[in-house]
């Protein structure tokens, strides 16, 4: 728990004003909670005619005698009304005191809750923002072994669990212990022997409850991991719904979801069973204590006569008043375990270090003037090398194409050039600057990336393009769409560029989505274009339109084209044929055809498709 609170402390410090005010109002709430019970004793004394008669108005002797002065002054006022046969007015006075103390108790409780709300919501929003920032900043390699649903569960479900469970400590850490301390202090003042029984109850209840909830944290962690798997199943189902339906695989995914949901049900029931035990256990222990108090206190009132019956009733109310905060603390101990396991999962993401940070002295690349050099690089995602001693140069203004069979390492070049991953050996440089020694932001600002998958966001066409250039004018957007051969279908839409593309751009065809992706890259207007199999998923007609758009875009730019369809790169300045991570052949189209090697075979195979 200490470790979690230490990690939360930097976030809490931003809201220290609310922490201070919450503590102040909780102290006042706890004080007036005790006073509200104590104020019932004068009312009971009036009702049962047990008021200690004071006939002389008390004198103020200083702050040290405040309690005696207040007590004597109240008895003096009440006595004067009782002596004048005006018991009703005496009763009004003591009832007014009861109402005022209860009103102040609730007012301070309300103010304390308001400030803990500001603190809790503020801290959790900051946590969520920082977590999202880190999710965005972490390299792609971080997500290669993780399910998206699990990450989503952490930023949504686990942070919500922290709000519902862990942050209850901030509400209870001051108020409930103070309620118990103030009540116990008053009870010891009234009768120390009776108070001993209450002191026995609190640690006994705490021990029993801690034994019951011993395994709760590990179960909560398992439940949260299962929740992540459940969300992943839903996310994968929605993403691949066409495949699920076309292969009649609904039953497979339904069973997978039901099995996960049933595992989560069992865990939730087990956790809930232990959570629900906290209240009854503390209630039974509390009523047992009250029963012992009634037996022993009744003896002191009726037999030993060392305490007034009205005072004993007030004492009993104080004792019972301790049960509420004691129950709240015992229930919180269960819920806190849920929150701790959620917090562990949140902070695992939040504190995960970026394995590809910018170097402290990283420079800003503001332009591209000469060439891209890939020098003797080797790279592996896990165990086997994907690229081996690979070297090429791409002069400014030239188009270099990478071709080869699937798994030959073509797309890996795009990932390394944009620094989604870092090379294991060798280096990549732009104008002689090792890209590891420049900021990733400035590096990527020089590049436009068009991938095989046309990634569009559920927003308007305009806002999807503005990702490339936030301050672009409408005229610039339309010009980019024209270059990408996309304006022809957009200008006929009722809302034009304000049309929503739908989830993942599904309101448009594959060719249309790809042309929008190209328009986004055109609008960015970078000096270097990286095209990662930009036409491989398209039909012949769409490919022709997209290829024309690509040719328009690549004019006067340096381009690295990763191609599956060789018809799209015949005019490249140089073609690199890759095989198992190494360069097998390189040259222009006609030169490679004349070699009658791998490239020629690839061309011949595609000519029959």
TrEMBL record:
<dbReference type="InterPro" id="IPR011527">
    <property type="entry name" value="ABC1_TM_dom"/>
</dbReference>
<dbReference type="InterPro" id="IPR039421">
    <property type="entry name" value="Type_1_exporter"/>
</dbReference>
<keyword id="KW-1133">Transmembrane helix</keyword>
<dbReference type="Pfam" id="PF00664">
    <property type="entry name" value="ABC_membrane"/>
</dbReference>
<keyword id="KW-0547">Nucleotide-binding</keyword>
<feature type="domain" description="ABC transporter">
    <location>
        <begin position="372"/>
        <end position="605"/>
    </location>
</feature>
<dbReference type="GO" id="GO:0005524">
    <property type="term" value="F:ATP binding"/>
</dbReference>
<dbReference type="GO" id="GO:0005886">
    <property type="term" value="C:plasma membrane"/>
</dbReference>
<dbReference type="InterPro" id="IPR003439">
    <property type="entry name" value="ABC_transporter-like_ATP-bd"/>
</dbReference>
<keyword id="KW-0472">Membrane</keyword>
<dbReference type="InterPro" id="IPR036640">
    <property type="entry name" value="ABC1_TM_sf"/>
</dbReference>
<dbReference type="GO" id="GO:0015421">
    <property type="term" value="F:ABC-type oligopeptide transporter activity"/>
</dbReference>
<feature type="transmembrane region" description="Helical">
    <location>
        <begin position="20"/>
        <end position="44"/>
    </location>
</feature>
<dbReference type="InterPro" id="IPR003593">
    <property type="entry name" value="AAA+_ATPase"/>
</dbReference>
<keyword id="KW-0812">Transmembrane</keyword>
<dbReference type="InterPro" id="IPR027417">
    <property type="entry name" value="P-loop_NTPase"/>
</dbReference>
<protein>
    <submittedName>
        <fullName>Antibiotic ABC transporter ATP-binding protein</fullName>
    </submittedName>
</protein>
<feature type="transmembrane region" description="Helical">
    <location>
        <begin position="180"/>
        <end position="209"/>
    </location>
</feature>
<feature type="transmembrane region" description="Helical">
    <location>
        <begin position="89"/>
        <end position="111"/>
    </location>
</feature>
<dbReference type="InterPro" id="IPR017871">
    <property type="entry name" value="ABC_transporter-like_CS"/>
</dbReference>
<dbReference type="GO" id="GO:0016887">
    <property type="term" value="F:ATP hydrolysis activity"/>
</dbReference>
<keyword id="KW-0067">ATP-binding</keyword>
<dbReference type="Pfam" id="PF00005">
    <property type="entry name" value="ABC_tran"/>
</dbReference>
<feature type="domain" description="ABC transmembrane type-1">
    <location>
        <begin position="20"/>
        <end position="338"/>
    </location>
</feature>
């Amino acid at each position: 728990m200490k470790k979690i609170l230490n990690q939360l402390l930097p976030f809490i410090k931003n809201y220290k004003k609310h922490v201070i005010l919450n503590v102040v109002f909780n102290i006042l709430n706890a004080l007036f909670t005790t006073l509200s019970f104590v104020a019932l004793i004068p009312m009971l004394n009036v009702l049962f005619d047990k008021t200690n008669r004071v006939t002389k108005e008390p004198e103020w002797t200083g702050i040290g005698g405040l309690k005696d002065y207040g007590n004597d002054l109240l008895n003096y006022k009440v006595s004067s009304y009782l002596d004048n046969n005006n018991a009703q007015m005496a009763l009004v006075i003591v009832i007014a005191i009861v109402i005022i103390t209860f009103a102040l108790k609730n007012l301070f409780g309300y103010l304390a809750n308001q400030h803990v709300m500001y603190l809790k919501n503020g801290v959790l929003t900051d946590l969520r923002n920082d977590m999202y920032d880190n999710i965005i900043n972490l390299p792609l390699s971080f997500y290669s072994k993780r399910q998206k649903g699990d990450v989503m569960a952490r930023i949504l479900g686990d942070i919500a669990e922290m709000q519902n469970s862990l942050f209850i400590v901030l509400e209870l850490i001051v108020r409930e212990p103070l309620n118990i301390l103030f009540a116990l202090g008053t009870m010891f003042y009234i009768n120390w022997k009776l108070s001993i029984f209450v002191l026995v109850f609190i640690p006994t209840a705490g021990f029993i409850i801690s034994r019951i909830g011993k395994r709760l944290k590990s179960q909560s962690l398992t439940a949260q991991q299962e929740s992540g798997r459940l969300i992943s199943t839903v996310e994968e189902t929605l993403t691949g719904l066409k495949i699920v339906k076309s292969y009649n695989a609904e039953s497979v995914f339904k069973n997978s979801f039901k099995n996960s949901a049933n595992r989560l049900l069992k865990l939730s029931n087990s956790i809930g069973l232990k959570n629900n035990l906290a209240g009854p256990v503390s209630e039974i222990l509390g009523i047992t204590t009250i029963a012992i108090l009634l037996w022993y206190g009744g003896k002191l009132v009726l037999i030993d006569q060392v305490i007034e019956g009205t005072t004993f009733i007030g004492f009993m109310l104080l004792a019972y008043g301790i049960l509420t905060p004691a129950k709240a603390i015992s229930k919180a101990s269960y819920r806190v375990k849920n929150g701790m396991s959620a917090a562990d999962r949140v902070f695992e993401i939040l504190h995960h270090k970026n394995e590809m940070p910018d170097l402290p002295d990283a420079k800003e690349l503001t332009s591209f003037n000469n060439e891209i050099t890939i020098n003797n690089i080797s790279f592996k995602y896990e165990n086997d090398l994907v690229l081996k001693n690979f070297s090429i140069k791409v002069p400014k203004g030239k188009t270099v194409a990478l071709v080869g069979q699937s798994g030959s390492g073509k797309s890996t070049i795009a990932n390394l050039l944009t620094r989604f991953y870092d090379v294991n050996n060798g280096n990549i440089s732009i104008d002689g600057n090792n890209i590891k020694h420049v900021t990733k932001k400035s590096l990527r600002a020089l590049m436009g990336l068009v991938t095989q998958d046309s990634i569009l966001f559920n927003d308007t066409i305009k806002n999807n393009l503005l990702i490339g250039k936030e301050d672009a004018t409408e005229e610039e957007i339309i010009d980019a769409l024209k270059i990408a051969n996309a304006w022809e279908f957009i200008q006929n839409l009722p809302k034009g560029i304000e049309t929503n593309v739908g989830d993942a751009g599904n309101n448009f065809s594959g060719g249309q989505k790809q042309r929008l992706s190209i328009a986004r890259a055109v609008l960015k207007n970078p000096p270097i274009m990286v095209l990662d199999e930009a036409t491989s998923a398209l039909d012949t007609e769409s490919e022709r339109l997209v290829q024309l758009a690509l040719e328009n875009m690549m004019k006067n730019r340096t381009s690295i084209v990763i191609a599956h369809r060789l018809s799209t790169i015949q005019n490249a300045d140089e073609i690199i044929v890759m095989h198992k991570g190494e360069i097998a052949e390189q040259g222009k189209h006609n030169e490679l055809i004349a070699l009658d090697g791998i490239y020629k075979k690839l061309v011949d195979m595609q000519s029959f498709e």
